[in-house]
Amino acid sequence: MKTGRLEAFSDGVLAIVITIMVLELKVPEGSNFNTLSPLIPKFLSYVLSFVYLGIYWNNHHHLFQAIERVNGKVLWANLALLFTLSLIPFTTAWMGENHFDKNPVALYGINLLFCAITFLFLEKYAIKHEGIESKIGKALGNKNKEMYSIVIYVLGVILSFVFPILGIVCYALVAIIWLIPDPRIEKQLK
Protein backbone atom coordinates (compact mmCIF):
# COMPACT_ATOMS: atom_id res chain seq x y z
CA MET A 1 0.00 0.00 0.00
CA LYS A 2 1.16 3.52 -0.69
CA THR A 3 1.47 6.07 2.12
CA GLY A 4 -0.92 8.77 0.88
CA ARG A 5 -4.05 7.80 2.81
CA LEU A 6 -2.09 7.22 6.01
CA GLU A 7 -0.47 10.65 5.71
CA ALA A 8 -3.77 12.42 4.98
CA PHE A 9 -5.52 10.69 7.87
CA SER A 10 -2.66 11.51 10.25
CA ASP A 11 -2.64 15.15 9.18
CA GLY A 12 -6.38 15.34 9.83
CA VAL A 13 -6.09 13.80 13.28
CA LEU A 14 -3.30 16.19 14.25
CA ALA A 15 -5.33 19.16 13.02
CA ILE A 16 -8.26 18.04 15.15
CA VAL A 17 -6.00 17.50 18.19
CA ILE A 18 -4.65 21.05 17.89
CA THR A 19 -8.17 22.42 17.48
CA ILE A 20 -9.40 20.60 20.57
CA MET A 21 -6.42 21.90 22.52
CA VAL A 22 -7.02 25.54 21.63
CA LEU A 23 -10.70 25.25 22.53
CA GLU A 24 -9.61 24.61 26.13
CA LEU A 25 -8.45 28.24 26.31
CA LYS A 26 -11.69 29.85 27.44
CA VAL A 27 -12.12 33.59 26.98
CA PRO A 28 -12.30 35.30 30.39
CA GLU A 29 -15.08 37.65 31.35
CA GLY A 30 -14.02 41.27 31.26
CA SER A 31 -11.80 43.31 29.00
CA ASN A 32 -9.06 44.13 31.47
CA PHE A 33 -5.68 42.51 30.85
CA ASN A 34 -5.73 41.33 34.49
CA THR A 35 -8.51 38.90 33.57
CA LEU A 36 -5.99 37.06 31.40
CA SER A 37 -3.59 36.24 34.25
CA PRO A 38 -5.45 33.08 35.36
CA LEU A 39 -4.96 31.78 31.81
CA ILE A 40 -1.17 31.99 31.92
CA PRO A 41 -0.60 28.36 33.08
CA LYS A 42 -3.11 27.10 30.51
CA PHE A 43 -1.50 29.18 27.76
CA LEU A 44 2.02 28.00 28.64
CA SER A 45 0.80 24.40 28.65
CA TYR A 46 -0.82 25.00 25.27
CA VAL A 47 2.36 26.50 23.81
CA LEU A 48 4.49 23.55 24.93
CA SER A 49 1.97 21.04 23.59
CA PHE A 50 1.56 22.94 20.32
CA VAL A 51 5.33 22.81 19.84
CA TYR A 52 5.27 19.07 20.53
CA LEU A 53 2.47 18.44 18.06
CA GLY A 54 4.36 20.50 15.50
CA ILE A 55 7.47 18.43 16.10
CA TYR A 56 5.56 15.17 15.71
CA TRP A 57 3.84 16.41 12.56
CA ASN A 58 7.17 17.53 11.10
CA ASN A 59 8.97 14.27 11.94
CA HIS A 60 6.01 12.20 10.77
CA HIS A 61 6.08 14.08 7.47
CA HIS A 62 9.82 13.46 7.08
CA LEU A 63 9.43 9.80 8.01
CA PHE A 64 6.82 9.22 5.34
CA GLN A 65 8.85 11.04 2.70
CA ALA A 66 11.41 8.26 3.11
CA ILE A 67 8.89 5.41 3.24
CA GLU A 68 7.51 4.19 -0.06
CA ARG A 69 4.97 1.60 1.08
CA VAL A 70 3.20 0.56 4.27
CA ASN A 71 1.72 -2.67 5.59
CA GLY A 72 -0.73 -3.52 8.36
CA LYS A 73 1.90 -3.29 11.12
CA VAL A 74 2.91 0.19 10.02
CA LEU A 75 -0.75 1.23 9.88
CA TRP A 76 -1.37 -0.06 13.42
CA ALA A 77 1.82 1.53 14.74
CA ASN A 78 0.70 4.82 13.21
CA LEU A 79 -2.71 4.47 14.89
CA ALA A 80 -0.99 3.83 18.23
CA LEU A 81 1.00 7.03 17.73
CA LEU A 82 -2.16 8.97 16.87
CA PHE A 83 -3.87 7.55 19.97
CA THR A 84 -1.10 8.78 22.27
CA LEU A 85 -1.03 12.15 20.50
CA SER A 86 -4.81 12.45 20.85
CA LEU A 87 -4.40 12.34 24.65
CA ILE A 88 -2.25 15.48 24.64
CA PRO A 89 -5.23 17.89 24.84
CA PHE A 90 -6.44 16.14 28.00
CA THR A 91 -3.07 16.07 29.77
CA THR A 92 -2.33 19.62 28.63
CA ALA A 93 -5.64 20.91 29.98
CA TRP A 94 -5.25 19.08 33.29
CA MET A 95 -1.73 20.41 33.75
CA GLY A 96 -2.67 24.00 32.90
CA GLU A 97 -5.87 23.92 34.94
CA ASN A 98 -3.96 22.76 38.01
CA HIS A 99 -1.08 25.24 37.62
CA PHE A 100 1.64 22.63 37.00
CA ASP A 101 0.91 20.55 40.09
CA LYS A 102 2.92 17.34 40.45
CA ASN A 103 0.39 14.71 39.34
CA PRO A 104 -0.76 16.52 36.19
CA VAL A 105 2.86 17.30 35.24
CA ALA A 106 3.81 13.65 35.76
CA LEU A 107 0.86 12.41 33.68
CA TYR A 108 1.77 14.89 30.94
CA GLY A 109 5.29 13.46 30.93
CA ILE A 110 3.96 9.91 30.80
CA ASN A 111 1.83 10.94 27.82
CA LEU A 112 4.91 12.40 26.09
CA LEU A 113 6.89 9.27 26.92
CA PHE A 114 4.25 7.06 25.32
CA CYS A 115 4.20 9.33 22.25
CA ALA A 116 7.96 8.84 21.91
CA ILE A 117 7.72 5.08 22.39
CA THR A 118 4.94 4.68 19.82
CA PHE A 119 6.92 6.79 17.33
CA LEU A 120 9.86 4.43 17.89
CA PHE A 121 7.60 1.47 17.13
CA LEU A 122 6.38 3.22 13.98
CA GLU A 123 9.99 3.69 12.88
CA LYS A 124 10.82 0.08 13.76
CA TYR A 125 7.94 -1.40 11.75
CA ALA A 126 8.64 0.94 8.82
CA ILE A 127 12.28 -0.14 8.74
CA LYS A 128 11.31 -3.79 9.04
CA HIS A 129 8.84 -3.44 6.16
CA GLU A 130 11.11 -1.36 3.89
CA GLY A 131 14.32 -3.18 4.77
CA ILE A 132 17.50 -2.17 6.57
CA GLU A 133 19.08 -1.04 3.29
CA SER A 134 16.14 1.21 2.40
CA LYS A 135 16.26 4.99 2.71
CA ILE A 136 14.52 4.85 6.08
CA GLY A 137 16.67 1.93 7.26
CA LYS A 138 19.86 3.80 6.47
CA ALA A 139 18.59 7.09 7.89
CA LEU A 140 17.43 5.75 11.24
CA GLY A 141 20.20 3.30 12.07
CA ASN A 142 21.39 5.54 14.90
CA LYS A 143 18.78 5.98 17.65
CA ASN A 144 20.79 8.11 20.11
CA LYS A 145 18.46 11.12 19.89
CA GLU A 146 15.43 8.93 20.58
CA MET A 147 17.08 7.14 23.52
CA TYR A 148 18.25 10.41 25.12
CA SER A 149 14.72 11.72 24.81
CA ILE A 150 13.21 8.69 26.55
CA VAL A 151 15.72 8.95 29.40
CA ILE A 152 14.94 12.66 29.83
CA TYR A 153 11.19 11.95 29.80
CA VAL A 154 11.56 9.31 32.53
CA LEU A 155 13.72 11.69 34.55
CA GLY A 156 11.11 14.42 34.06
CA VAL A 157 8.29 12.17 35.26
CA ILE A 158 10.25 11.18 38.37
CA LEU A 159 11.23 14.78 39.11
CA SER A 160 7.61 15.90 38.63
CA PHE A 161 6.58 14.18 41.84
CA VAL A 162 9.08 16.24 43.84
CA PHE A 163 9.75 19.39 41.79
CA PRO A 164 7.12 19.70 39.04
CA ILE A 165 8.88 22.67 37.44
CA LEU A 166 11.96 20.47 36.84
CA GLY A 167 9.71 17.98 35.07
CA ILE A 168 8.52 20.78 32.79
CA VAL A 169 12.15 21.78 32.18
CA CYS A 170 12.93 18.20 31.13
CA TYR A 171 9.97 18.12 28.73
CA ALA A 172 10.97 21.50 27.28
CA LEU A 173 14.54 20.25 26.86
CA VAL A 174 13.35 17.31 24.75
CA ALA A 175 11.26 19.69 22.65
CA ILE A 176 14.34 21.85 22.06
CA ILE A 177 16.33 18.76 21.03
CA TRP A 178 13.70 17.92 18.40
CA LEU A 179 12.81 21.43 17.17
CA ILE A 180 15.16 21.11 14.22
CA PRO A 181 13.82 18.52 11.76
CA ASP A 182 15.71 15.26 11.85
CA PRO A 183 18.58 15.67 9.34
CA ARG A 184 19.15 11.90 9.14
CA ILE A 185 16.16 11.49 6.86
CA GLU A 186 16.81 14.61 4.79
CA LYS A 187 20.32 13.35 4.01
CA GLN A 188 18.88 10.11 2.61
CA LEU A 189 16.35 11.95 0.46
CA LYS A 190 18.95 14.00 -1.44
From TrEMBL:
Name assigned to this protein: Integral membrane protein
Topology relative to the membrane: Multi-pass membrane protein
Organism of derivation: Imtechella halotolerans K1
GO cellular component, one term: membrane
Transmembrane segments: 9-27, 39-58, 74-94, 106-126, 147-180
Location(s), subcellular: Membrane
Residues of the signal peptide: none
Family: Belongs to the TMEM175 family.
Taxonomic placement: Bacteria, Pseudomonadati, Bacteroidota, Flavobacteriia, Flavobacteriales
Catalyzed reactions: K(+)(in) = K(+)(out)
Main localization (coarse): membrane
GO MF terms, alphabetically ordered: potassium channel activity; proton channel activity
Key words, A-Z: Ion channel, Ion transport, Membrane, Potassium, Potassium channel, Potassium transport, Transmembrane, Transmembrane helix, Transport
